[in-house]
């Protein structure tokens, strides 16, 4: 605990606050998600700490409700992408040959098209419902996870303990669960943090373009879009959800930087 730097503590605190908003947001919100309480862009008061949005709804309540959508959708997409990319990447590294070639060429084909263009095409064709949005982002992001898992798997697969397990007659899935995954955990945890940041910003960008999380659900990217005209009048309404997006991204990156620094520290220094 004493070796954790101040920046990592700040990042952990930011993540903890956002997780609390994710789990308890509706309970902490002073008003309902769609309650009209005043006029458009009314200033902050003792009862409405962040003022009103473009429709006269409480900004603080909308941000707390929006945490469930913005963070929840991004977290679900990241978990699904790792559930797809990790086993396929490890399996390709272990089997090699035509299995590795087919999976790698398929991933390269998907990655040839920019992620934003692929997502826009799919969402325009199938709609922006939450299941479609989550699965689309997860499948597109799983290609990046596949490539990392394949590289890590190839490096661990040639180690002596992996060779000994194969000589004992252990199968591919046993090797993945007992040898490769535990030894690749540190870089994968750091990669999960970075992938969550990319997904989180991507969801916010899609919502800003009108193809992400749809009304009546509140989400931070959509709130920036809905309140963007307030900037013309010197109002802060669009800055609050934008600050929430930036703060969580910074917090996750601070923790990821600490994890990566700890992994790259020489063994003697770590002791």
UniProtKB/TrEMBL annotation:
Kindly list the places in or outside the cell where this protein is found, as annotated in its UniProt entry.
Cell membrane
Looking at the record, the residues that make up the ABC transmembrane type-1 domain are: 67-260
Question: Can you tell me where the transmembrane regions are?
Answer: 6-29, 69-93, 113-140, 196-217, 237-261
Q: How does it sit in the membrane?
A: Multi-pass membrane protein
What are the protein's UniProt keywords?
Cell membrane, Membrane, Transmembrane, Transmembrane helix, Transport
Chief location bin: membrane
Q: Which CDD domains match?
A: TM_PBP2
Superkingdom of origin organism: Bacteria
Q: Record's family?
A: Belongs to the binding-protein-dependent transport system permease family.
Spell out the protein name for this chain. Peptide/nickel transport system permease protein
Please tell me the species this chain comes from: Inquilinus ginsengisoli
**Source lineage:** Bacteria, Pseudomonadati, Pseudomonadota, Alphaproteobacteria, Rhodospirillales
